[in-house]
Design a protein that fits this description.
mainly alpha, 2 domains, about 75% helix, elongated
Amino acid sequence: MSHEKKNIISGFFFLALSVFIYAVSYTIKLVKADSLGPQFFPRLVSFIMAQLAVYLIAVNALRLRRNREKTEKKIFKLNIPLIVTSVLLVAYGLLINSLGFIVTTMLYLFVQIYMLLPLECLKKRSYMIITACVSLLTPVFIYYLFYMAFNIFLPVGILG
């Protein structure tokens, strides 16, 4: 869902909320000692909230219309990192019990970090060493943190 659609939905939600607050303000009992009355502030807030909600709806409806005109001209493009990440997560879920938490997480982190690095970083050896160290040390640290501090046993797999 696009950002504009979310804002339009939020605008309608706040518009409905402001109508509700305004309607509920009629149930507040009047006190003669107060010049404005206890109903004044809830009604003021609901009125301002309604104006802002209508503005939010209008602005994002216009943006949505402009974006539709622009996106109709664009050609569909595959999002390769999204597809690879999805495949990696499914493989991670399938392999964690058989290979274990440490091995599976090491492999996952290495491939995921390698895939998300910019191309100019892939040519430098230092980035590959950092990626390998992070991929090796992070799962071991997490495993022992869960084991020692929380008494939670993660899948051991081929290492156990």
